[in-house]
Design a protein that fits this description.
The protein contains six helices and twelve strands. The protein is of the alpha+beta class. The chain folds into two domains: about 1-35, no CATH class; about 45-245, no CATH class. The relative contact order is 0.14. Residues about 1-10 have low confidence and may be disordered.
Length: about 240
């Protein structure tokens, strides 16, 4: 018997009826509702439904583009809900598109609006390790050059107990949300040991992303443990987020 949730399981079906058993409510019967696809597509009654479905589909494609462009290291540090969180965030940004009518709104125009930028700034890829809690330092971001300056201050990093080194990375992403194409440039620092951070950490990309589109700048902090003169990745404390729009 296929399990639907931890509380419900299907016990049988008959015509348009489905029988469930609930731990809390006993046996239940629900009618299965089926809609004619052509009616849903063309009926004014379902116009809003089709508008929402079209926009949501557009948002999920932009989220997939962003995940691809952010690169392996940034995707790897995300938690299990990173993708759904990005989709939800980009859906909010899409709603800030004031230039298009319902059903035709998209993420790109929403990203150009101050409200859309505000929604994106500070988005964490891993909720367990929020970037601002792992890295407590002043940052200066130049989206024109993709440069990130981090001012070293005492106790600016929340070091995992086993970590011996740290590395900083950036991803300068440019997304064409209409053509669903883009480019990204990745930059990383050398490994810094505990107590060996320079006065300022600077990430300067070698070039700018190619093509048209909207720009995002992501910052990542990853810790390492050195054993036998070899540095190994740690997943604890691995934090990343959007710091420039």
């Amino acid at each position: 018997m296929p399990r639907l949730t931890s509380l419900f399981k299907v016990t049988g079906t008959m015509d348009d009826l489905t029988f469930y058993h609930s731990r809390t409510e006993g046996y239940l019967v629900r009618r299965t509702h089926r809609h004619d696809p052509e009616k849903v597509k063309n009926s004014p009654q379902f116009e809003r439904t089709m508008e929402n479905a079209t926009e949501f589909g557009r948002v999920t494609k932009v989220a997939a583009l962003l995940r691809r462009l952010m690169g392996y290291k940034f995707k790897s540090c995300g938690d299990a809900r990173m993708t759904s969180r990005l989709i939800s965030t980009l859906h909010q940004v899409m709603k800030k598109d004031r230039t298009s009518r319902r059903g035709h709104r998209s993420v790109g125009p929403g990203m150009t609006m101050p409200e859309g930028k505000e929604i994106l700034l500070g988005v964490d890829l891993n909720k367990t390790y929020p970037l601002d809690q792992i890295l407590r330092a002043n940052r200066r971001v130049d989206l024109e050059t993709g440069t990130i300056h981090i001012e070293s201050v005492p106790n600016m990093l929340k070091w995992p107990s086993t970590a011996t080194h740290v590395r900083f990375r950036s991803a300068w992403v440019r997304m064409d949300t209409t053509a669903l194409e883009g480019d990204a440039v990745y930059t990383e620092t050398e490994l810094f040991g505990r107590g060996q951070l320079p006065a300022e950490i600077t990430l300067i990309p070698e070039r700018s992303p190619e093509g048209p589109g909207q720009d995002l700048l992501l910052l990542q902090v990853q810790f390492y443990i050195e054993e036998g003169q070899q540095a190994y990745d740690l997943t604890e404390g691995w934090a990343a987020g959007i710091v420039g729009v």
